[in-house]
Amino acid sequence: RLFLAGFDLSADIFLSHSIASGAVTNLSFSTMANPANPRIIRLEEGWNDEIKKKAIDILEDMLDNGIKSGRSSMFGPREYVAIYTTCYDMCTQRSPYNWSKDLYQRHGETIERYLTSTVLPALREKTGQGGTILLTELQHRWSNHQIMNKWLKKFFTYLDRYYVKHHSLPTLSQAGLKHFKTHVYDEMKRDTTAAILTLIDEEREGEIIDKTLVKSIIELYESMGMGTLDAYTADLEGPLLDSTREYYAKKRQEWIVSDSTPDYLIKAERALIEEKNRVADYLNPASESKLLRVCEEEILEKVEMVLLEKEGSGCRVLLANDKSEDLRRMFHLFSRLDKGLNPMADIVEKFISSMGNECIKKRQARLDGGEKDKNDDPKFVKSLIALHEKYLGVIKTDFSGHSLFQKALKDAFVEIVNKNVGAYTNAELMSTFCDRVLKSGGEKLSDAEVEDNLDRIVQLFSYLTDKDLFAEIYRNQLAKRLLNQRSASDDAEKVMIAKLKMQCGTHFTSKMEGMLSDLAVGSDQRSEFEAKMKQHDTRLDFSVQVLTTGFWPTYKSPEVALTSEMSKCMDVFKEWHDNKHAKRKLSWMFSLGNASVRGAFGKKSYDLQVTTLQAVALNALNGGKTMTFGDLAEKLNLEEGILKPLMHSLSCGKYRVITKSPASNKINTTDRFVANSKFSCNMRKIRIPMASLDASHNTKRVEEDRSIAIEAAIVRIMKARKTLQHQQLIAEVLSQLAFFKPNPRVIKKRIEALIDREYLERSADNSNVYNYLA
Predict the structure, then answer these.
(1) Does position 546 have pLDDT exceeding 90, yes or no?
(2) Are 584 and 664 in contact (CB under 8 A)?
(3) Across-strand partners of 596?
């Protein structure tokens, strides 16, 4: 650093650079120092003759009256540099002539004087003349203040750079803002806030306002926080939220009386969009969430239940009338509220339940009206499928698949699907519907329609409590389709089992998969046996299907007296099978067999598709023999309970190839039977169905399986927990059983059974506590 006669030239050089970087153009500046005779600038001289006269007075005049013609800017480079130099010199003189403190003080006094003598009177004059007039004047005065603050900061830059820093004082800009806040803002804020709120309310009512003006005033509020939003929050945002609450409280009272729920929600949606846009247009972004929250509380939260339950237009009515757009809007608006969707989901659940109950009542009405109660009611099942499909779609599209509404749908259908009407459970009706879809001669559907129906029935199945009962019935029906070769498509059967497996796991479908596997493996063995049969002289085309006992349902197996040809074929197969599988035991199921019998009636002959039992009975009556019921029972070695449905199918059904006397539709033990010589039919190939000797499912077996499952769950839980209270054990057992929901009393019985078999014991101290016995 080079010092000449008390002048710091390095500072002068830095100053020149600073001024140049401040966009002052065409500046040629150098410090002329007379080291021998430096001139001292007195305070009043420098202030009055230079700074006030050549800068401050001119600046104030231009702010009040505008820039005079002939001037392109407020201060040219030479004017500015001269004033700056004076300030600089007054701040760099040695004490006692260093006027930094005085200049800093007079900077503040200048701003304060201008604000109190010029700005405030002008604003006071505009107060009461209308909000826009006051805000326009304030905008003008605020703009002038920013210009004044900027130029004074430029003139006194040296103060900011050294004096302010060394004494930890507010910068010149901060000081200028503080003076404006103290003398103008604090006095005018009440009136300006009221003016802004009035303009906002006018805009809400559809009037056009000067948004740019409002935005500039709000920027003033933000500036008054000195780097924070405290002033904006306290002086504008707080009153705005109160005003908004009051405005929408009035609107809510008007709308709720005059408008339907959809119309009310349209207005509410529009109001929320407008408030959001209002924030984007001129309010601070921090206000958005608070402002919208106030609106939501006033126009949605306080009247939610009134809107949802409004007669003629509430949620139930919208659901009933398929008002998709209105439901979407309702969902969207109430999703904004904390737990706002809960009451809506409750209404949806009750509505779906009521629609399901209507389907159930229609089925009950048909039964009460005399319709025969049977395990096949496709109309009822289809109505449930259609209902589920419809409201599953509503939840996906209108309610965005929200979990609350998915739960509402599930809870409603759990109630509907498990409400049985008539002698047959819904599990049996649903399984029989699957049977119609999957067997040949049932529903006439394309492959895509079959899979679509299976998808939908599995969705209904997922709501069933008694899944194990469905499995038992479905397995029996699957067995009949497979053994009677009535399955329309092996692929469709596999698809259905795969869907059930995905829903309930491998354990649920293992037996069904085993049944399909048996048939696949059996085809190879059948080919091998057919080659063996060609070596024997038999008049019958004979084939055997070998089944694994554990996979298939249990069937009645009467020891019927077969024809000699049939017995011979069976002996050949037994010999061949024993040679291949010495350790396997064969049991013949004659009730599952079928046969093709050529029957000649008069001049016509027919191919009769019948069961093995029917074929044996027809053979007994061959050649025109007449036999009594007792004779047939003795010859065929069949019990009355089996022979009656057998003879009913041949003599009382659609195709009466046997004539009974006396004629009636009921088989009695006194009846006589003979081949019907007058039988005639347009078809050459005739299938004569016979009533099944077995029930669609074995209820006793289902109950036994359930008892085993309950006991297994109890033992698993107690082995892990060692000691457990009664209610806790009941709860854990219920949570583990996926395929059925037992009555707690049944669980208690199984606990007692396990205590008797010494798997568990009651605690000596508390009989309500169980201990596991290893």
Answers:
(1) no
(2) no
(3) 609
Q: Measure the CA–CA gap between 256 and 251, rounded to whole angstroms.
A: 8
Q: Hey, what long-range contacts does 339-345 have (CB within 8 A, 24 or more apart)?
A: 340/300, 340/301, 340/304, 341/402, 341/404, 341/405, 342/404, 343/304, 343/305, 343/308, 344/308, 344/315, 345/404, 345/405, 345/407, 345/408
More confident residue, 445 or 694: 445
| pLDDT band at 695; cut points 50, 70, 90 | low
* Token code pair at residue 611: 């069961």
What confidence score (pLDDT) does residue 217 get?
92
Percent of the chain with pLDDT over 90: 33
| Token representation of residue 666 | 């009921």
pLDDT at 4 over 50: no
> How far apart are alpha carbons 453 and 495 in whole angstroms?
12
Burial (Cβ within 10 Å: 0-12, 13-18, ≥19) of residue 66:
exposed
Per the DSSP assignment, residues forming a β-bridge with 598 are 607
DSSP label of 439: B
Helix axes 378-397, 403-417, angle to 10 degrees: 170
**pLDDT class for 68, splitting at 50, 70, 90?**
low
Residue 416's contacts (CB-CB under 8 Å, 6 or more residues apart) are: 352, 353, 356, 357, 359, 360, 384, 387, 463
Q: Among 645, 710, 655, 652, which residue's Cα sits nearest to residue 687? A: 655
- Distance between CA 471 and CA 449 in Å, rounded? 23
- Report d(CA 472, CA 577) in Å as an integer: 30
Q: Kindly compute the dihedral angle of the four CA atoms of residues 410, 412, 414, 420, in this order, to the nearest 10 degrees.
A: -160
Q: Is the pLDDT of residue 7 over 50?
A: no
- Please report, as a single letter, which amino acid is at residue 494: K
Q: What is this structure's pTM?
A: 0.76
Tell me what the pLDDT averaged over the chain comes to.
85
The pair of structure tokens assigned to 328 is: 């979407």
**What was the pLDDT predicted at 38?**
58
Please, which residues bridge with residue 609 across strands?
Answer: 596, 687
* CA gap 120, 278 in Å, rounded: 30
- For 136-158, write each residue's pLDDT tens digit: 988 888 988 888 888 888 888 87
pLDDT at residue 582 greater than cutoff 50:
yes
Structure tokens at 705: 């399986």
> At a CB cut-off of 8 Å and minimum separation 6, what does 156 contact?
87, 103, 104, 107, 172
Instruction: Read off the tokens for 68.
Output: 């005079």
Residue appearing with tokens 């809400």: 204
Q: Computed over its alpha carbons, how large is the radius of gyration of the chain?
A: 49
Strand order in the sheet with 658-661: 626-628, 672-675, 658-661
544 versus 218: the higher-pLDDT residue is 218
Confidence of residue 318 (pLDDT cuts 50, 70, 90): very high
CB 540 within 8 A of CB 569: yes
745 has a pLDDT exceeding 50: yes
Label residue 5 by pLDDT band (50, 70, 90). very low
In angstroms, rounded to a whole number, what is the distance separating the alpha carbons of residues 387 and 459?
Answer: 12
Question: Strand, helix or coil at 388?
Answer: helix
User: Are the C-beta atoms of residues 149 and 56 closer than 8 Å to each other?
Assistant: no
* Alpha helix segments (H runs only) across 310-341: 315-320, 324-334
Residues 6+ apart with CB under 8 A from 132: 195, 199, 209, 210, 213
